[in-house]
Design brief:
Blueprint (H helix, E strand, L loop, with lengths): L1 H20 L8 E3 L1 E5 L2 E5 L7 E7 L6 E7 L3 E4 L15 E9 L3 E2 L6 E6 L4 E9 L7 E8 L9 E11 L9 E9 L6 E8 L9 E14 L2 E10 L3 E2 L16 E3 L2 E7 L7 E10 L2 E11 L4 E9 L4 E3 L6 H5 L3 E9 L2 E8 L3 E6 L10 H4 L3 E9 L2 E8 L2 E7 L4 E3 L5 E2 L2 E9 L2 E9 L5 E10 L2 E11 L4 E6 L2 E6 L8 E7 L2 E4 L7 E9 L5 E7 L8 E7 L4 E4 L6 E2 L6 E5 L2 E8 L11 E7 L1
Parallel strand pairs: 2-9, 18-43
Antiparallel strand pairs: 1-3, 3-6, 4-5, 4-7, 7-8, 7-9, 10-11, 11-14, 12-13, 12-15, 15-16, 15-17, 19-47, 20-21, 21-22, 22-23, 24-25, 25-26, 27-28, 28-29, 29-30, 29-31, 32-33, 33-34, 34-35, 36-37, 37-38, 38-39, 40-41, 41-42, 42-43, 44-46, 45-46, 46-47
């Protein structure tokens, strides 16, 4: 009996040890909502047997770091953006998530697959405001209104909708502003059209009026065991009275004229990889247009392989031949840039452990980078060529430095250009002047300050210091001795095209341009036109696409073409003028995998 008890105890001990050595089971299913929750992204994991807790993580788009957002036993959790600037998710921003299970005995299991999600971003707009004189009632008018507020048919968490419509006598909505309409609907009312009439006593037919909707959406969200209530607020754009005669305020109408070009379709741009494409760059050398992009792009790692292409006049072909072997062997390229001068190609790339710089005048040189460029830690790399000399900017720790290559060694140009929380530093040779621009951020806020400077001797002279909330991703051009820049915008900000007026002011020339917003790329042609690619908005984000727009100094016009197959994702859009021709590069919407185009196409528009 004692021997049997001993064997049983040993068996129990081994079973206990075996159980303790077993790994926490993996996650079988993990999902994130895509546009059917207001103010939140709903994360759901299939219950894992015998698991006590789950660790939810979100990648912060600003820091590119994974951050824990919830640790607990809930298998459904609504992310409302806590820990991000202003503790809110940004409209239109796609977020990445992962999760792992935890048991007290076995610790953490493996991470799940990375999933992406985004919240629903309401976009109410005015379609109609019209006044008719009421006979027999002096100074009385019947005001007919129509508001459109399209909601997802499967919206998950709507509690209440509130609308207020304001009228003013100035575009900034400050002069004699007053509320003219107010509505309140519970979550069961999902009507997309709000229409009716009401009597109006304070209307003056001799005045020009402007209108704006202020909307609030109350929503439920699951947060740390209990359900809570949040509020999502947004304002419509400003509508001028002349737009609101029944169709002017509808973003499904272009709102801009068209301009005709002859279109040449180059078809698909050949690529060595079927993976994602991202971070397109364009430039011109003489009359030859070039583009670069990261191929085989891994969204989770934000890495890819640089590819360079040039236009021969009849097709797009590889530029520079096969990339250097050491560059191809590095699987962690996260940033790159290139420039072309007098037929010579210059390429720089940055990985997690190395900087690569090459020159190609028929074949690629050895790596020209030295430890001087690497520094203690380096990121945000960009290059430009001026007077056949290569300049390179790189962020080293918190300093933005610029270096010049003299043919054998590198030397720093002046002192640090800037220090602090700096992102997206760019260099460009514009008409023989070297410009640098960068974004300065204030930690914990969505405030962004754009700095534009140019090189004079060894000093950097400021051209513009300009701040705006939720601004991001700038590019600059110069036309008729004036600087212009685009900002893509983020969150509720729809971007713009700006003319620099002074060292601290700029005028947006891209206001109220129909349903187009979020400029992606900018160039200028030989006739003095500004050309951009921008996103064509729609109530359904699946219908968003690109368009090419031309500004002649007085008005914007859309290039008359069908852009429905273009993808607005992955920074795969570029416009580059050559004379009066426009080269247009874009990702193919139907090729998107995990919200990233895998095929690029090209067209040329000729006058």
């Amino acid at each position: 009996m004692k021997r049997m008890i001993k064997y049983l105890l040993v068996a129990v001990l081994f079973a206990s040890i075996f159980q303790s050595c077993k790994k926490t089971p993996p996650i079988a299913s993990f999902t994130a909502s895509q546009g059917n929750c207001i103010g939140a992204i709903r994360l759901a994991v299939e219950q894992v047997p015998n698991v006590e807790n789950y660790c939810y993580e979100r990648k912060n788009p600003q820091t590119n770091q994974w951050e824990e957002i919830y640790w607990g036993y809930e298998n459904v959790f609504d992310d409302t953006g806590y820990g991000l600037p202003n503790d809110k998710l940004l409209p239109g921003q796609v977020y990445q998530y992962r999760i792992k299970a935890h048991t007290n005995k076995r610790g953490y299991g493996d991470y799940s697959e990375i999933v992406t999600g985004y919240m629903f971003s309401p976009n109410p707009y005015l379609k109609k405001i019209e006044y008719k004189k009421i006979e027999g009632k002096p100074d009385s008018y019947e005001m007919e209104y129509r508001i459109v507020d399209k909601l997802p048919i499967d919206i998950q968490n709507l509690r209440v909708r509130r609308f207020q419509v304001y009228r003013a006598e100035s575009y900034d909505m400050n002069l004699n502003v007053c509320e003219i309409l107010s509505f309140h609907f519970d979550g069961n009312n999902l009507d997309s059209i709000i229409a009716g009439t009401q009597e109006e006593y304070n209307f003056d037919k001799n005045k020009t009026y402007y209108y704006r909707i202020k909307a609030q959406y109350e929503y439920w969200y699951n947060y740390e065991i209990s359900y809570s209530v949040g509020t999502y607020s947004c304002n419509s754009r400003v509508f001028e009275a002349g737009e609101l005669s029944g169709g002017g305020g509808d973003p499904s109408g272009d709102g801009v004229g068209t301009i005709n070009y002859t279109s040449t379709n180059y078809g698909e741009i050949n690529s060595s990889s079927s993976g994602g494409k991202n971070k397109i760059i364009h430039c011109i050398d003489g009359s030859t247009a070039y583009i670069g992009y990261l191929d085989g792009y891994q969204e989770a790692l934000e890495t890819g392989k640089p590819v360079l292409m040039k236009n021969t006049g009849s097709s797009w072909t590889n530029a520079g031949g096969a990339m250097p072997a050491e560059l191809l062997a590095d699987n962690f390229i996260k940033d790159y840039d290139f420039d072309v001068s007098s037929g010579t190609i210059y390429l720089a790339a940055l990985s997690s452990s190395a900087i690569y710089v090459y020159k190609n005048n028929g074949s690629w040189s050895e790596n020209l980078a030295t430890p001087l460029l690497q520094g203690a830690s380096s990121n945000s790399l960009d290059i430009a060529v001026l007077n056949n000399q290569l300049y390179l900017t790189v962020r080293q720790n918190d300093d933005i430095n610029v270096f010049k290559y003299n043919g054998t060694t590198w030397e720093q140009v002046g002192s640090a250009v800037a220090t602090g929380f700096i992102t997206n530093t760019k260099l460009k040779n514009i008409d023989g002047t070297l410009y640098i621009w960068y974004e300065e951020h204030e930690s914990g806020t969505s405030q962004c300050t754009l700095h534009i400077k140019h090189l004079s001797g060894t000093s950097w002279v400021s051209d513009l210091t300009w701040s705006k909330d939720e601004a991001a991703n700038f590019d600059i051009v110069r036309l008729n001795n004036s600087l212009y820049f685009i900002e893509e915008g983020m969150g509720t900000e729809l971007g713009g095209v700006y003319k620099v007026e002074s060292s601290n002011s700029a005028t947006n020339i891209f206001e109220k341009v129909g349903k187009y917003a979020l400029p992606q790329s900018i160039t200028t042609d030989a006739s003095g036109n500004i050309i951009i690619s921008a996103i064509e908005l729609d109530q359904n984000i699946d219908n968003w696409c690109l368009a090419v727009l031309v500004y002649d100094g007085t008005s914007w016009k859309k290039v008359n073409d069908d852009f429905s197959e273009t993808s607005f994702r992955g920074h795969t859009s570029a416009v580059q003028a050559s004379g009066n021709d426009i080269h247009f590069i874009y990702g193919l919407k139907s090729s998107e995998v995990y919200l990233m185009p895998t095929v690029m196409k090209a067209k040329k528009y000729t006058k």
